[in-house]
Amino acid sequence: MFLRRLCRRDTIKFSEKLLDRYRFPEFGNYHFYTSRAASSSQQIASDIYRSDEDEANVNWEELGFGIVPTDYMYVMKCSKEDRFSEGKLNRFGNIEMSPSAGVLNYGQGLFEGLKAYKREDGCLALFRPEENALRMQKGAERMCMPSPSVEQFVDAVKQTVLANKRWVPPPGKGSLYVRPLLIGSGPVLGLAPAPEYTFLIYASPVGTYFKEGLSPINLFVDDEFHRATPGGTGGVKTISNYAPVLKAQALAKSKGFSDVLYLDSINKRNLEEASSCNVFIVKNDVISTPTIEGTILPGITRKSIIEICPHYGYQIQERPVSVEELMDADEVFCTGTAVVIAPVGSIMYHGKRVEYRSGVETVSQKLYSALTSIQMGLVEDKMGWTVEID
Ligand SMILES: *Cc1c(COP(=O)(O)O)cnc(C)c1O
User: Which candidate in 138, 237, 247, 303 is catalytic?
Assistant: First the structure.
């Protein structure tokens, strides 16, 4: 890769390289274009300069988890028979699609989510992006779609972050949330895989996910609605898993809860996860999380917690966890890229409310600081999880 490690001292050189690349589009395999047809190359060049030099007009202190439009999005297309080959950065904006696009009619689509952090030295880093790439590949197989290679995926994420780097919040203020999509963009009428696919990445600066910030959240255990069923698609990040939980989520929110905890759809007895995050319980310093068996999304944060626990002296178990054990736990927390590690202050199940330990001395607090220190480059990354953007 010709893109240099993006530390402050390299910023100018980097801009010049980007300009070179724009002026000589045949340079390497990469091209910069724009969706603004009228823009001249000079305009793009100055946009790229501007994006290097001007800080975005965002109040970093008030970032939540909402869409803040940024400068560029990455787009790559391929047909059903083909492989993805070459993508490009476009100005962020609306995309055009046939009303009969597979994704619009039959929900043939996947999403991913990962974060880019700005470190104290100005370097930008990603957390385990190849895990997102692999998960997208598995999901694509399940949804009958072609997928980008791990290298293509990671490279596209890096390009998207670099093109939007003025939108990456300062250290400690948040992160740039990167949202890759893989969608059936070609037209179909009868139920079948779409003839054309689009891989798209956009990004938005974010702060904390729940309005509680880092304070404990309160969850509603639902045994009426289910997120996933055996043989279904609960184990992949398909867009079609999310609209069906909006109603359960809305009902829970109307009663003052942050989110829903789902139970298995067969016996309504074992814990699965929340609408967009995994769940862990702590009892007598043993940490447990439900086993991944097709109905639970294999979270990368979940996996990372499981992998660091032994290094912090915690015993960790992946096994079925019943709702009775949830009621009897000392501590409960949720994990996900968006939420990081969210402590659960209480749950409500069949009209009964149970409260959990929270605060500084909790397991979730210790794991939160362990994980975020690695992500933000505050400690040495012995796990080899962070990827500097260069
Ligand atoms: C994305 C997601 C998670 C968390 O996965 P991470 O890789 O940790 O971000 C958990 N559950 C569901 C349902 C999800 O969609």
Answer: 237
